[in-house]
């Protein structure tokens, strides 16, 4: 059968665009459909605008610390509308870059909602196209629990477009997005409460990291409420919100921000017209090569619920393009030792196994930790402390994990991720000469195991 395209991609986010561009570069006839915004969640309502807001929030600390270095700044003022307008302008610029990347690669761009008609046919705005292969890369969507008053709450989608900064914000959740936005709102001057239904946020991260961040956020004056959850939300006469907790307590706020997970974006996608299957969590089920139960349809990125990070979606997109159209260059994605950062204030950077994961895998571990006040703060009143931690296999001396809480943690851990990926031992760390004076050198100067 003659198809209109060799590959049709549904979703122009990070993974979809990467697959489309490179497949076209390999000589395939490619189309891509996007119904919302080019670049997907990351560029528009995720990583990029979030990082810009984190930068904005950090200036409060910078202005305060400047006094210790002789700067007199007077009363600093902040204007939320200016930050959002400048953020919007930058995102619009990036949307244009994504458009040009696709068009210049020879990809046919269709703007509109794509729906599967059958395993080889997609309909976009009334136009039907056939393709030998169809790739679903529609990403995820925030979910707010079904409680009375849920319509009064916002998610990260709406937070980036608030007309004004709320005076009081109640952030609900315990993952990346929750702690990052709590830091943003708090840093920009809002009275911020972080509410989480479990004992401690950031499950899956090293316990030392979790406890250290809890202590630092508390030191900064953020109100942390653990083992608590909202039962209902009500709007009061003055326009403020009243959150009633499951334990009967009440919290007044001006904004309830939910960051309690994301679901796969499969709305009106037409999966019922295909043999695509979902797993128990509702994500699209794929094999190791991103193949669904329908032979002509593949899926990647957040919609498969594997590792929901932009760089992972990019790697998956490249893998799909190579497997389909340049198989001699195909390499499977390696999901081990994926570095990541949480842009809370202070930042978290981590790669490899946590102490808890290493012990669960049966390793006999040696731990190296350093907690110190960064040099930049020694001329200020700021008492924030940095945490650095290495998890080492006592038998092979290989460094299994590297974890940090502190300024520029993501920047520092990215470099160390290369060493850990290469299998570096603690001896190699010890024999590496540090860059002085930096915080990063602490990772190569820790000599005494914790508890030794």
Q: Please report the number of helical segments.
A: 11
**What is the general shape?**
globular
Compute the number of strand runs.
21
**Residue-averaged pLDDT, rounded?**
97
Beta-strand content bin: 15-25%
Structural class: alpha/beta
Q: What is the C-alpha radius of gyration, as a whole number of Å? A: 24 Å
For the report, how would you describe the main beta sheet?
7 strands, mixed
Distance between the termini: 69 Å
Stretches where pLDDT is under 50 for at least 5 consecutive residues are none
Task: Please tell me about this protein's structure.
The protein has 452 residues and is α/β, with parallel strands linked by helices. The protein is 29% helix and 24% strand. The strands form five sheets. Strands 1, 2, 3, 4, 5, 6 and 16 form a seven-stranded mixed beta sheet that branches. α1 packs parallel to α8 and α3 (47-66) packs antiparallel against α4 (80-104).
Secondary-structure blueprint:
Elements (H helix, E strand, L loop, with lengths): L4 E6 L3 H12 L4 E5 L5 H6 L1 H20 L13 H25 L3 E4 L2 E5 L2 E4 L2 E10 L3 E3 L13 H4 L8 E5 L3 H12 L3 E6 L10 H13 L3 E4 L3 E6 L5 E5 L4 E4 L1 E4 L3 E3 L32 E3 L10 H16 L14 E3 L5 E5 L2 H6 L4 E8 L13 E8 L5 E7 L3 H13 L4 H6 L21
Parallel strand pairs: 1-2, 1-6, 2-3, 6-16, 8-9, 8-14, 9-10
Antiparallel strand pairs: 4-5, 5-6, 7-15, 11-12, 12-13, 17-18, 18-21, 19-20, 20-21
What are its keywords?
29% helix; 452 residues; globular; 7-stranded mixed sheet; 5-stranded antiparallel sheet; 11 helices; 21 strands; alpha/beta
């Amino acid at each position: 059968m003659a198809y209109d395209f060799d590959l049709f991609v549904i979703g122009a986010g990070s993974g979809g665009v990467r697959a489309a561009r490179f497949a076209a570069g390999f000589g395939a006839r490619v189309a891509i459909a996007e119904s919302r915004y080019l670049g997907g969640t990351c560029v528009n309502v995720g990583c990029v605008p979030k990082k810009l807001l984190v930068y904005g929030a950090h200036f409060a600390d910078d202005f305060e610390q400047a006094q210790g270095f002789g700067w007199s700044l007077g009363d600093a003022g902040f204007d939320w509308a200016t930050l959002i307008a400048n953020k919007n302008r930058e995102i619009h610029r990036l949307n244009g870059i994504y458009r040009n990347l696709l068009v210049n690669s020879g990809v046919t761009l269709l703007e509109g909602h794509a729906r599967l008609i059958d395993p080889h046919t997609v309909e976009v705005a009334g136009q039907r196209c056939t393709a030998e292969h169809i790739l679903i890369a529609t990403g995820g969507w925030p979910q707010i629990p079904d409680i009375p008053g849920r319509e009064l709450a916002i998610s990260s989608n709406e937070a980036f477009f608030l007309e004004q900064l709320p005076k009081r914000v109640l952030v609900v959740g315990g993952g990346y997005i929750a702690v990052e936005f709590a830091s943003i709102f708090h840093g920009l001057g809002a009275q911020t409460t972080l509410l989480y239904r479990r004992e401690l946020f950031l499950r899956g991260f090293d316990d030392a990291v979790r406890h250290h961040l809890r202590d630092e956020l508390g030191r900064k004056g953020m109100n942390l409420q653990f083992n608590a959850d909202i039962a209902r939300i009500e709007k009061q006469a003055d326009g403020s919100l009243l959150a009633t907790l499951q334990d009967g307590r009440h919290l007044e706020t001006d904004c309830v921000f939910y960051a309690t997970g994301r679901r796969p974006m499969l709305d009106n996608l037409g999966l019922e017209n295909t043999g695509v299957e979902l797993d128990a969590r509702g994500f699209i089920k794929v094999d190791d090569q991103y193949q669904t139960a329908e032979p002509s349809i593949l899926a990647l990125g957040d919609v498969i619920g594997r590792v929901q990070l932009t760089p992972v979606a990019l790697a998956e997109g490249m893998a799909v393009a190579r497997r389909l159209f340049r198989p001699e260059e195909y390499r499977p994605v390696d999901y081990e030792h994926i570095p990541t950062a949480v842009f809370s204030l202070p930042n978290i950077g981590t790669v490899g196994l946590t102490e808890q994961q290493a012990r669960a895998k049966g390793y006999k571990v040696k731990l190296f930790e350093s907690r110190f006040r960064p040099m930049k703060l020694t001329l200020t009143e700021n008492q924030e402390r940095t945490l650095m931690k290495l998890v080492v296999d006592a038998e092979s001396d290989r460094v299994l994990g590297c974890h940090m809480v502190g300024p520029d943690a993501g920047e520092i851990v990215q470099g160390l991720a290369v060493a850990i990926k290469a299998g570096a031992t603690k001896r190699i760390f010890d024999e590496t000469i540090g860059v002085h004076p930096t915080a990063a050198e602490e990772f190569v100067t820790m000599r005494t195991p914790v508890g030794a």
